[in-house]
Amino acid sequence: MQNEKFIPQRGIYRCKNNGVTLTELLVVIAIVGILVVALGFSFQGWIGKYNVEAQTKQIYFDLMDARARAMQFNRIYYVQSVGARSYSLIEDANDNSINDDLAIAGFPKPNFEYDITWGGAMPITFDKRGNITNIGTISIASTSSPDYDCIVIEQTRINMGQLSGGNCVAR
Q1: What is the pLDDT along the chain (171 residues), one digit of tens a residue?
Q2: Which string of DSSP letters, residue by residue, matches 81-117?
Q3: What is the distance of C-alpha 47 from the center of its chain?
């Protein structure tokens, strides 16, 4: 009757349960460890998808910016690949319709995390009305499966999409 305590008012015995056993503690630690590992792998996959989508959206934004600048300033603009992970935005400042000017401030973009595949003729050219003369696709090489990892470029439209069987399907 070492673990029992007599309560005289009620005439009953109660056991002392002060604390947890080592077995209970090990079970809780094992469950928490399994959850941390499972969520860690899920988080890494989510971050990879996010980075691909962020890069795709940055390129899309820069293409739309080039189109808006072409219409606003009534000049020809070029988007030119600079290596596998970078590109430049160039304004035809001397109005000679030749891609021989310097890149706009802030370009070339710093190297991205993923390779950029430019499908179609380079450079992408925006005329003074914002129309594109070189149609094609831009895709981001990655092992994850994000919602957006490519861009479809048409004469009057630029759409983000998802690669499916090697083709960019606009969304």
Answers
A1: 455 555 556 556 566 667 778 898 899 999 998 888 877 777 777 788 899 999 999 999 999 999 999 999 999 999 998 888 899 999 998 888 888 888 888 888 778 889 999 988 889 999 999 999 989 999 998 888 889 999 999 999 999 999 988 889 988
A2: E-STT-EEEEE-TT-SSSS-SPBPTT-SPPPPSS-EE
A3: 8
Instruction: Give me Rg for the CA atoms of the chain.
Output: 30
- 8 upstream amide cis, omega within 30 of 0: no
In sign, the C-alpha dihedral spanning 37, 42, 46, 49 is positive
Per the CB < 8 A criterion, the answer to whether 124 and 135 are in contact is no
Chain centre distance of CA 69: 25
Beta carbons within 8 Å of 164's beta carbon, 6+ residues apart: none
Buried residues in 2-39 as b, exposed as e (16+ CB within 10 A): eeeeeeeeeeeeeeeeeeeeeeeeeeeeeeeeeeeeee
For residue 118, give the H/E element and its range.
Answer: strand 116-120
Tokens matching residue 116: 């950029």
The residue length of the chain stands at: 171
